[in-house]
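Run log, item B.
One chain of 124 residues. Sequence copied directly from the ordering sheet:
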Amino acid sequence: MLALSRWSQVTVLVFIILAKLAGEDHLHGIAQWVRLRQVELAVALALVKPQAPHATTYSRVLNHAVDIVAFERVVSGFFAAQPGAGESVELSLDGKTLRGTIPAGESQGLHLLAAYLPQEGWVL
């Protein structure tokens, strides 16, 4: 288990999950999202000080303290246990090529694809 001098792994993971639910996709965005809400988060989570971890703290937790296979199993189990899981037949897709990812002389760059299940409210 990774030793964090100031932050418990649970607190850092809660911060990450809340920021991800708010739409943050990058470590610096997560860190900024938490920093802008550090007082409210400290009150809600009964933290001693309203401080926010640096982006490298999130990176260390995600890279060293989380068993990705176990995490994916828990998340999959959670979504599978939701009422009506797996019953949706409506699927919306959105794809795009990221600007600035097409190398010189090439015709294709990095593509993103999102699948939305409207009945469940999930984006994959």
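Observations after the first pass:
- Residues 92-123 form one domain.
- Helices lie at 9-21, 27-36, 38-44, 55-65, 68-80.
Flagged for discussion on Thursday.
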